[in-house]
Amino acid sequence: MKRAFVRARRPEHKQQRREEILAAARDLAVASGVRNVSLGAVAEAVGLAKSNIMRYFGTREEIYLILAAEEWQQWAEAVTARLEVASDDAARLEASSDHVVAALAETLADRPLMCDILSQTATTLEHNVSIEAARTFKRAILAVIADLGSQVARATGLTVGEGTELVSVATAFAGILYPIAHPSPTLAELYAQDPVIAATCPDFLPTLTRALKALAAGLPTLRED
Amino acid sequence: MKRAFVRARRPEHKQQRREEILAAARDLAVASGVRNVSLGAVAEAVGLAKSNIMRYFGTREEIYLILAAEEWQQWAEAVTARLEVASDDAARLEASSDHVVAALAETLADRPLMCDILSQTATTLEHNVSIEAARTFKRAILAVIADLGSQVARATGLTVGEGTELVSVATAFAGILYPIAHPSPTLAELYAQDPVIAATCPDFLPTLTRALKALAAGLPTLRED
What we know:
The structure is a homodimer.
Chain A: H1 2-7, H2 11-32, H3 39-46, H4 50-53, H5 60-88, H6 96-109, H7 112-125, H8 131-155, H9 160-181, H10 185-193, H11 195-198, H12 204-218
């Protein structure tokens, strides 16, 4: 027992614990939505006391900001892979902004956890965290936005500034659209009872795609001569 | 005492109580943000027990959905007043979509409580309410969106469908942008420490205006022949 206790303090063991906690928080969020996961539920899932969890992460929100940064990073990799393929297809330059919009929108639609986290970031997750946790998160996502903004500019006729706006709006709009397109149990029941109201519930991917296509077409018209 | 007890059951008294509760919930939300107001705080502000409040409103979220519908209605009146003035100015038809975008964006910027509510609607307020409360709310806002969508179409070269999209995106984007542009105390402290990160925090009105201008310019390019 003494030996195990000593081992638990070694850096690689701490790192393993951190990863177990993050994995449990991720699984719980996928199963029931970020908003419904408490720190107590995470603690129970990994078999630790809540006070023990807080030696690794200050708050529930800090756990989800770390997962948020991971989701943004993985999303960036998926978009980059899509844009590299698209740029081989130089003959279709005219359709390039449609390619880029599809790459942004479809990779977001493929990531329900990221969209769920996006819907909670500014209203919830960026509250109740340390300044250092907020700084680490902001730096990570600003790097992703800057990188993807440049890639979008290279793949289209948009400027870097416009590409950055397209990427920013894509993630912002995904964050508000996701919970609308994936209604609460109450709304799902209302929609089942009332087809007229149900028909106004937007589908995530086509709604996001259309808004981004319009934005990509409209941004260059706002350039000042 | 007996007499006062009887009077409390009269419909006009009940209506007055409802309005007192709604006014208290509104004041508390303006002061500290919708997310920070509990049903207990509302009860305390009107001097009733929590169980007493629940004879008027099923949940905290039902109170805020009613306030949400009121905010949408008042917003619609403000936009309508702006568009009526704009349509007198028929000579400036070319700039009409800029007028409409300004009317939508500036009236939202004038309504921090509405924007705060928009940021909470799909993620929080549409949970934990009765189906009837959700139905009443949805019908109210769908009527507003349809009405404003038609007005936008009349004032611009957009179709009714495109006008409706512009109005929908305006409110959706306001809902995600508002908490980003009005950061949490932690983020405010981070921005004070780190001007490079602070510079990436969007300003609400110019960011909303620019996105809606681009959308209004881009939507007609998506029409199928």
